[in-house]
Design a protein that fits this description.
With 148 residues, the protein is mainly beta. The chain is 11% helix and 48% strand. The protein has a four-stranded antiparallel sheet with strand order 1-8-3-6, with no helix packed on it. Strands 2-7-4-5 form a four-stranded antiparallel sheet, with no helix packed on it. The radius of gyration is 18 Å and the shape is elongated. It starts with a strand and ends with a strand.
């Protein structure tokens, strides 16, 4: 059963923020399945990447550390997930992959998430924007398997 699906965009102005996506889980769900993807993973504009890296080097490393933007190429977008169930933290998937599949049920859960009963109510999937160097498109699809 489809519980939630959202396609959207994350903009560079949203870098280092968290974007909550609320959804309701109906009663009778035994397992949640989260499929998530975003693109592009890599900023392909070399001039923009060089500029971003130069600013970061100046901000975080100063002149003591002899670094060049090319030392840190390529620039990768990184948007990870965390999950709350009725206001309680249920886990996170802070992974590099731009395509992810997670399952949560009473008896098992993907690494980073807590296994346990799937309670009905308001859940929140949070996009944790670690690095957004360019406009990034994403798609989240959450399905639920009903108890038989």
């Amino acid at each position: 059963m489809l519980i939630f699906e959202k396609t959207g965009k994350v903009l560079p102005e949203q870098d280092k923020t968290n974007i909550p996506l609320e959804f309701n889980v109906p009663s009778g769900i035994e397992k949640l399945v989260i499929d998530y993807e975003y693109a592009p993973k890599i900023l392909n504009d070399e001039a923009k990447a060089t500029d971003l890296l130069q600013k970061s080097i100046e901000k975080y490393l100063g002149n003591e550390y002899k670094a060049e933007p090319k030392d840190f190429m390529p620039v990768k977008n990184l948007i990870t997930l965390s999950l709350d169930e009725n206001g309680n933290y249920r886990g996170a998937a802070h992974r590099q992959a731009d395509r992810q599949h997670h399952e949560i049920s009473r008896n098992s859960a993907s690494v980073g998430f807590e296994k346990g009963e799937i309670k009905s109510g308001k859940w929140t999937l949070v996009l944790n924007v670690h690095c957004c160097a360019c406009e990034v498109g994403y798609n989240v699809k959450i399905t639920g398997e009903e108890k038989v």
